[in-house]
Amino acid sequence: xGAGGGHSVDTHxxxxxxxxxxxxxxxxxxxxxxxxxxxxxxxxxxxxxxAAKACGVKCEKFxxxxxxxxxxxxxxxxxxxxxETEYGLGIIPLGGYVKMxxxxxxxxxxxxxxxxxKVVTTTPDGKERVELDPRSYVAxxxxxxxxxxxxxxxxxxxxxxxxxxxxxxxxxxxxxxxIAGTSPGDPAWVHxxxxxxxxxxxxxxxxxxxxxxxRWEFQQEVMKSGxxxxxxxxxxxxxxxxxxxxxxxxxIKPTDRQRKTRQTVTLGVMAIQSxxxxxxxxxxxxxxxxxxxxLEPEDRxxxxxxxxxxxxxxxLGDLPGTDINDALVHHVDQPxxxxxxxxxxxxxxTFDSVIAPNPLQSVGVVMEIGPVVGIRLGSPAExxxxxxGDIITSIQGxxxxxxxxxxxxxxxxxxxxxxxRRDDQEQTLQVAQDFSRWNVAYDGRGAxxxxxxxxLAYAITNRVAEVLPDTAAAESIKPGDVxxxxxxxxxxxxxxxALERLGPNYNSIIELDDEEVTWKYVNGLIQEAGAGIRFRxxxxxxxxxxxxxxxAAPLANEYFPDRGLxxxxxxxxxxxxxxxxxxxxxxxxxxxxxxxxxSVLTMLFTGKVPLRNLGGPVLIATVAGAEANEGLSxxxxxxxxxxxxLAILNFLPIPVLDGGHMVFLMWEGAVGxxxxxxxxxxxxxxxxxxxxxxxxxxxxxxxxxxxxx
Length: 709
Fold this sequence. Notes:
With 709 residues, the protein is α+β, with helices and mostly antiparallel strands. It folds into 4 domains: 11-107 and 142-170 and 576-707, no CATH class; 179-271, PDZ domain (Pdz3 Domain), CATH 2.30.42.10; 273-358, Pdz3 Domain; 364-551, Pdz3 Domain (Roll). The protein contains 16 helices and 32 strands. A hairpin with a 2-residue loop joins strand 2 (76-82) and strand 3. It is elongated, with a radius of gyration of 31 Å. The model is unreliable at 1-27 (pLDDT under 50).
């Protein structure tokens, strides 16, 4: 009995509510995913089947998967008869069903099925009497039918507890809420969160938890603090532990700068990375790809410039990679020496590898510095009297120059004299530098620049301040021009290489703005572009638009901190101390997942989450494959979510689904007779059409994600 009966749509409604985590990478992972999802469906249908048998209902079919709609296709991949029931694997792997005598969700077969339940008996006086087959579904009492209908959901919830319990019993690799870096000017940066800090409690209820998870507890709470544009953002109360073991509470309000375009709020933090290389370099033109001796995937960095890495290793032996990123920032214009530990079948070797600085690529324009957008609490900038909105005009008597490279050119003097423009007047501020302060800022949409030693963050405008001489830009761009669009272009073999290197959307037209897509973001794209890429800028001058195509070239004595190293995420193993604790965690996990599914559904129905976030079977398989690639326990936790998803969605009060059948039964129990048969049929037919339209929609979403459209 799928989703309330007949050839129904249980797993049609398992909607993937995730971002894509990765494609299925191996045949082994595909097998795990198929077995796992099949098991979740099997358990649901088993609940219906066992409850029906217990109530004396004849079950004619038990299938995982559906029959094909086209007659020329085989009815099943595999089937066999055992007793009165045919068991099989349907050819369409999108759900499952238990076919009971007298029950079919297809309105077109309702009359035929009703005839099959009739039994003609002869009374003692010789008259024929038509009765319901006592073993048919419709002959059972309302409470019995309610039990049959709800048994699938109940089994999914019970199985979810056990699946999650086994995951925690074996040990779950989680991404801890440890901070790798903060985005200058964003709330976490303002509240002085540093690389190496760890969030151990969210809210003041309960106790500190060493095993808070980045994706589930942390990101979900941040997201829920301000999911809808226009709603006020709720501050988060976080208990933070520093690398030195000191603990403090912070009340931090996420920023909604990106909420209009990305439907999310953010604290501006990056998850911790490890010292293990996923690959030597993201792009072949970056200097990490030219390290001497060459680096290889799975190499571990154990020291930087002779200094051993600090931090606590995980169960795999990985250390936090914060010292690596710190060296890239602090020695942006110098070679860095990585001490590498390489383990292969023949043994472990240790050697030093040198990575040269990465030259800054430029198209020949320097943008105007924007206003101060953040001042770190307790910082020298706060003490010196800086205010948001100030615009820096000079430092130590020198113009600021390129605002992108300013953080790396900041004089090392203990005290700086900084002139700012405030309310159309210039003010001179004296500020002492704090050289103990370090942060690894990450770039991306909405990124700003930070002067870390004084605790000040500023924006970068899209207005040209200077055009570098002897560049292509000097012929076509003037100071005062505003860049409003950006596009990367390539042709021929360069285009093919760009597709492989940067992805199918590399040449999308990017609209620039003052908040999210700024020149800082564009600058990052230019550094990653590599050879063969041209850059088309749409310029606004005197209210007229024009297009300019430029190429990038390295600047002398200017460098970019990212040298292309790709570090693996740092995970930590959470193993329950006993099976009792494991199943307690299973109950917690199931409750969380049920609450999460319900919360997301609520936000979908209220419009707080856009429908384009929905996904179908392709997205489910993709995410499941990515989780399987992280190990069996991670896949089990995903199946826990899937079980909760299936339970909640199938108990929605929609005809065709289990919840819709329960509504019909509640009506029958209340008024003493079934709902009008024609009303049921029309409601079921309408719901079926609606669900089919929804499936087309989520399949379209899946395909758009797959092909990047």
